[in-house]
Write a structure and sequence with these properties.
321 residues, alpha+beta, 9-stranded mixed beta sheet, 3-stranded antiparallel beta sheet, 14 strands, globular
Length: 321
């Protein structure tokens, strides 16, 4: 744009200058209603007629001389948030009746009765309890079936059936999708453990090279060497990002004895990827004490041989709100 000469500045009509000022005020949100004459409509500095809008913001219309028109945008009324609906009302009358007496009841390891039986039946239908139907939640297969189901649906893995788990069972909530986090898709070797789907993904440079079924931590019993009595509780596999610091074919163990953790890839104190004779024998009827169990000896040896010291290990559990 060519610069304006002094002579040109002196020859600008004052009316155009006033219009420019008015337009700047409107554009910056500073427009205001001008006073109106008792006998005629209000006019702006350049002769344009100003008509008050219903919202109280002045709207300028073009004058007979062809001055620019400036219109203020009316304010928008915020939309009210929808009232939350009861998800149970979306279920069939038959389903609501089936769960009516249990949805406010808490069921967990050791529970028995009609609500415990309902839990087992629904876990069996969802293929998380392949054993004989029972009206008691035992501390191995029953408790760990609840944990595995909760992880698969993105729920907090508590081992206790309460409000959210009852709703998931009643509504037949779907399994969370398999999506590997970005932390698994980096350069080098990465062991990615998906607790929801009970799978280990072995990746190199962001590409999955091997997928293995695994068993993770859960409801279990442990009596340490110096304890008089053991404890039943959840010994979970910790989510997070770690590094492999050692590998041993048969590491010693005070708690489990020799030969309990063959071909251990050690990525965290008390958390290893290793072959598990117990997992091979009984499957998901039990759980580990925090380690990542591999039920196939061939797969455990492959992981042991191909995973270098310093490799990244990422353990995760997808969640839903």
């Amino acid at each position: 744009m060519s610069p304006t000469l002094p002579s040109e500045r002196r020859t600008w009509p004052r009316a155009l200058a006033a219009v420019a000022v008015a337009a700047m005020l409107v554009a910056s949100g500073c427009a205001r209603t001008l006073p109106e004459s008792p006998t005629q409509g209000a006019f702006g500095p350049a002769g344009e007629q100003v008509t008050p809008s219903p919202t109280g913001v002045a709207t300028a219309t073009a004058s007979p001389t062809g001055s620019p028109t400036a219109t203020a945008t009316p304010t928008t009324t915020p939309t009210a948030k929808p009232t939350p609906t009861d998800p149970w009302k979306a279920l069939s009358a038959k389903t609501r009746k089936e769960f009516k007496n249990c949805r406010t009841t808490t069921v967990g390891p050791g529970s028995s009765g009609a609500c415990a039986l309902l839990v087992i039946r629904k876990l069996k239908a969802a293929k998380y309890y392949p054993w004989a139907t029972t009206s008691r939640i035992n501390q191995t297969s029953g408790a760990n079936a609840i944990l595995n189901y909760q992880r698969s649906r993105g729920l907090p893995a508590t081992g206790i059936v309460a409000k959210k788990t009852w709703l998931a069972l009643a509504s037949r909530a779907p399994v969370v999708p398999t999506v590997l986090p970005k932390k698994c898709l980096t350069k080098g070797v990465v062991i990615c453990v998906d607790q929801a789907h009970r799978k280990l993904f072995w990746l190199k440079d962001g590409e999955v090279k091997k997928t293995v079924k695994v068993r993770v931590g859960g409801y279990n019993y442990l009596k340490k060497k110096k304890q008089k009595k053991g404890v039943w509780r959840i010994y979970g596999t910790a989510n997070g990002t770690w590094k492999v610091y050692d590998k041993q074919v048969d590491p010693p163990s005070e708690n489990y004895g020799s030969g309990a953790m063959p071909y251990s890839v050690m990525f965290y104190p008390d958390m290893y990827v290793h072959y598990s004779p117990g997992f091979h024998a009984v499957g998901y009827a039990g759980s580990s004490h925090g380690c990542v169990n591999v039920g196939s000896l061939t797969d455990a040896i492959w992981i042991f041989r191909h995973t270098p010291i310093g490799a990244k290990v990422h353990v995760f559990s997808p969640t839903v709100t």
